[in-house]
Structures are given as structure tokens and as C-alpha cells.
Design a protein that fits this description.
The chain is α/β, with parallel strands linked by helices and 477 residues long. It is built from 18 helices and 14 strands. The longest helix has 24 residues. The chain binds uracil.
């Protein structure tokens, strides 16, 4: 029997190295005892570790999955991963076998860890602990994650809060960010953290964004599970806000103006004019879009680019308009922006083939320059003309969530264009109530020349796609 003990800090690298050696030496899963994270090392652990020489090839998709699953709290995770890795030898197709129970279980664990990382990003609350005259501000937070997610999520906090020193203390390990570098220490008991000014800010913010007329207690508890409440300053207000919600919603309805302001009437007339009344047969929509002459863009484009994907998709992804490649191939997101999307989506487990992918505007708008066709942003008139088709697609697919990538998609879906950076990562609602998650457009990432800026923007895009994946997983029908 071989024994492998995995340290609490650096578990991913330690598991990968041990698994590589066992696999190279041909050690079958039932000959290995995997100690849990931080378990006392077996007396002969290292002596017994075989030194294999065989070549080891492992599908990349397994490595990506394993690097997440190792952070799950299931004590059997290392053994499960190795067991599946063992089966993968000579059968790499298992990674795509949807009927495989072991893979399904690991994918479920991967999802749990992603969800836990997402909750950590949303619910860590820093309190200021440094001396007022210290050269750098210093913060600390106490957090109790469901899985071992501190280490894989620390990079997110380092990017977001790179201009201050901070520590996130958990019962398992503590992440410390000082002088621009993250390090990890053993876990600690809950520290006695002072209340600070940001505490009151959170409470005020939460009370302000709480809309009693939209209260859905189950959905709220799923987004903000009760176990996190005790460490969230704003959560103390929740019982009171829920109790007062019916009376406040009634009062809001009674106080609502009976005549909408003039500007509102204008906006509503415009929206009504663009709402699709297309009521042809379900399978006739692509041909109808092909024949569209609602705005002048059809004259110079090669063809209309229709949406594609399952008509019962839970997620609809909306971009701006086809680019040069899309215009020629007649399919959305097949050019460089599509490749950026595919890469980030792949990392976060968002399946493009399960989504309906389309654009706010169906024809390529460009200006010829020499042999090149230079992309031009569609204007509000073109966007609202094309809403006709987007609405028809929405009515057909009825997605649970729409991902609006970029300002044009956000404008088309919500009626509001600006302030994309402050809106991204949040769910807004279309006039008919359709939830719309706003994010950056992948070609924005391609346009950034500064590598650091591009990395930061990519991290935001990655966060948003993760949010989409989590929302879909959380609110499954
Ligand atoms: N950009 C978009 O917005 N859509 C595409 O289909 C391609 C690039």
C-alpha cells in the first residue's frame, strides 16, 4: 500500500505531482491511501512514493477540472480524481462521456467549488485594521468557506485590492497580501475585528438596493445563503426588511404617479414600436432575418448573421454585430472575438454549444479602408430597428438568462447604453422583466494594448462568465 499526504497549502501542486508519479509507476488506485488535506504525513509517505519513469499524458480538460476539484471538501476527492485519471489511460474520450457516473460526480464537485469561489468573492467583507498613520492601509476579513477555496481565489482579491494590504482569515488557511505578494499561513480562530466605516456603508447600500416589490425570499436565500449572514454586516437588516416588504410594496404602489412623465411616454412609444410583432412560423425566423431591409445596413453587408444554438437554451448570449469573419461565414462569433469568448467560457465551464448565441444587430456595419473593412459601431436607430429580430429570438428561445456583451447589447436589451464598467457583473432587467447579465465585449479585451490592463479586463470578463454559469446552475428549473 502507498500513502500520500497532501499539505493544506499548495494542495493542487502536491496532488498533481503525487498523481503523476503514481501514474508513471503504474500504481492502481486501490494501492494508494490518500490522506486528507493537512493530515499527518504517513511515517513512510515519501520513502514509499514510487519513482515512475513511464511517460504520462493527461487530457488538458482533466487537468483543468482536477485543479478545481482538489479544493472540494470531500475527503475522497484525491482518490476520486486518481481513480478517474487511472481510467482515462488509453480512454481519453471518457472526458466527454456524459453518461459516465464518475465524471458526472467530479463535474458536480467542480461546480460546487466554483460556486463557493463566487460566494467568497461576493461575501468577503474587509474591516480596516491598520494604524491611521501607517504608510499602507491594512484590512482583514473573517470568512468560512464551504470548500478550500481561499488559495485558488486569492488571486482575484490581489487583483481587486492590490493597492492595500489585506488578510483573509479562515479556519483552514489564511491568505496574506503584503507588499504586492500573496502568501498563505495556517488557519486561525476568528479574530476580533473592529467595526469600521465601511460596515455602515454596506448596511446603507443594502437597504437602498433592497426592493420590497421584487422580494423573492427563496431566490434571495439562494443567492445569499443563510450560512454567510453572520459575517455580513448588511444581513442583520434582512429579517426586518422581509417583514416590512409587503407594507412597503403596497405603499410604493399607492404612491406611484398615475401619469408617467412625458419622457417616459416617449421611451415607451419607442420601445413599443420596436417590439417584435413577428409571428411567422418558428422555423421561418432565419429566412425572415435573411430578407431584412428594416435599416440600410443590409445594403453593404454580405449577409444577415442569425443567431444559432438550441431553441430551448437556458442562456442567450448577445453580442454587438457580426464582424468581418462573421459577415463572410454567416455565423456569430467565429472570428477573434469569438475565440476570446470560447477561451474564457471554457475556463469557467460555460458551454457555448448549450447557449443560443446572437447579436443585437444582424448586419455588419463597416467603412471600407483600402482592402480592409473597418468596424463601425451601430447607432441607436439601427439598434432599435434590429430589436425586432432580437425580440423574436427572445420570444422563441425564452432563455432564463441573457448575457449582454458590450454597450450595444446592453442598450438593445435594457434601453440603457452607458456606464458599462459600473454595470458589468450585475443582473439588470429588460422592460419585460427578462434578466440580463451585463459584461464586457470580448473585442474590448482584444483592443487593449497594455498587457496589465488586458489581464485585468480579462479577469473581470472571467468573473462575469462565472457569474453567468453560477446563476444558471443555481436557478435550475
Ligand atoms: N462581435 C460581435 O459582437 N458579434 C460577433 O458575432 C462577432 C464579433
Amino acid at each position: 500500500m502507498h500513502h500520500a499526504s497532501i499539505p493544506a497549502i499548495g494542495a493542487a501542486a502536491a496532488w498533481r505531482e503525487a498523481a503523476r508519479q503514481f501514474l508513471a509507476a503504474g500504481v492502481p488506485p486501490d494501492q494508494i491511501h490518500w490522506g486528507g488535506i493537512g493530515s499527518a504525513p504517513h511515517l513512510f509517505a515519501d520513502l514509499e512514493r514510487p519513482r515512475g519513469t513511464g511517460a504520462v499524458t493527461v487530457p488538458r480538460s482533466f487537468i483543468a477540472m482536477a485543479e478545481t476539484v482538489v479544493w472540494h471538501r470531500d475527503p475522497e476527492r484525491f482518490a476520486r480524481l486518481y481513480g478517474f485519471l487511472w481510467r482515462l489511460r488509453g480512454a481519453p474520450h471518457l472526458m466527454t462521456d456524459r453518461g459516465d457516473a464518475d465524471l458526472a460526480r467530479l463535474r458536480g464537485m467542480e461546480k460546487n467549488v466554483h460556486r463557493c469561489q463566487h460566494k467568497m468573492k461576493a461575501f468577503v467583507r474587509f474591516r480596516e485594521i491598520g494604524a491611521p498613520d501607517a504608510p499602507r492601509r491594512s484590512f482583514a476579513a473573517w470568512f468560512e468557506p464551504t470548500h478550500h477555496t481561499v488559495e485558488p481565489t486569492a488571486g482575484f482579491f490581489a487583483r481587486r485590492f492590490g493597492d492595500m494590504d489585506w488578510r483573509i482569515v479562515t479556519p483552514d488557511i489564511t491568505a496574506v497580501f503584503a507588499n504586492g505578494a500573496v502568501s498563505f499561513q495556517a488557519g486561525q480562530a476568528r479574530p476580533d475585528l473592529p467595526e469600521d466605516a465601511s460596515e455602515q456603508l454596506w448596511i446603507t447600500y443594502f437597504r437602498n438596493i433592497f426592493n420590497p416589490a421584487r422580494l423573492k425570499v427563496a431566490a434571495m436565500q439562494s443567492e445569499m445563503p443563510r450560512k454567510y449572514w453572520k459575517n455580513l454586516p448588511e444581513a442583520a437588516s434582512i429579517p426586518e426588511l422581509i417583514a416590512q416588504a409587503p407594507a412597503r410594496a403596497r405603499a410604493m404602489a399607492e404612491a406611484a404617479p398615475t401619469l408617467p412623465p412625458a419622457r417616459m411616454a416617449q421611451v415607451q412609444a419607442q420601445l413599443a414600436g420596436c417590439t417584435s410583432a413577428w409571428d411567422g412560423p418558428q422555423d421561418g425566423l432565419p429566412a425572415a432575418i435573411d430578407a431584412c431591409t428594416r435599416c440600410p445596413l443590409h445594403r453593404s453587408a454580405t449577409q444577415a448573421v442569425k443567431g444559432e444554438g438550441p431553441l430551448d437554451a437556458a442562456l442567450m448570449i448577445v453580442g454587438e454585430q457580426p464582424g468581418d469573419h462573421e459577415d463572410l461565414q454567416g455565423r456569430p462569433f467565429v472570428g477573434p472575438a469569438g475565440q476570446v469568448f470560447d477561451q474564457v467560457a471554457g475556463q469557467v465551464g460555460l458551454r457555448r454549444d448549450q447557449a443560443y448565441v446572437t447579436n443585437a444587430v444582424k448586419h455588419f456595419k463597416f467603412q471600407p479602408r483600402g482592402k480592409r473593412r473597418i468596424h463601425q459601431r451601430p447607432d441607436s436607430g439601427e439598434i432599435s430597428q434590429c430589436r425586432w429580430w432580437l425580440d423574436a429570438e427572445l420570444a422563441q428561445v425564452k432563455p432564463r438568462l441573457v448575457l449582454a456583451m458590450g454597450a450595444t447589447a446592453a442598450e438593445s436589451l435594457t434601453g440603457r447604453r452607458g456606464a458599462l464598467m459600473s454595470r458589468r457583473g450585475r443582473v439588470e432587467h429588460a422592460p419585460n422583466g427578462q434578466p440580463v447579465l451585463i459584461t464586457l465585449h470580448p473585442s474590448y479585451l482584444l483592443r487593449l494594448r497594455d498587457p496589465q490592463e488586458r489581464e485585468q479586463a480579462t479577469a473581470l470578463f472571467d468573473d462575469d462568465l462565472r457569474t453567468a454559469a453560477d446563476l444558471l446552475a443555481t436557478h435550475r428549473n
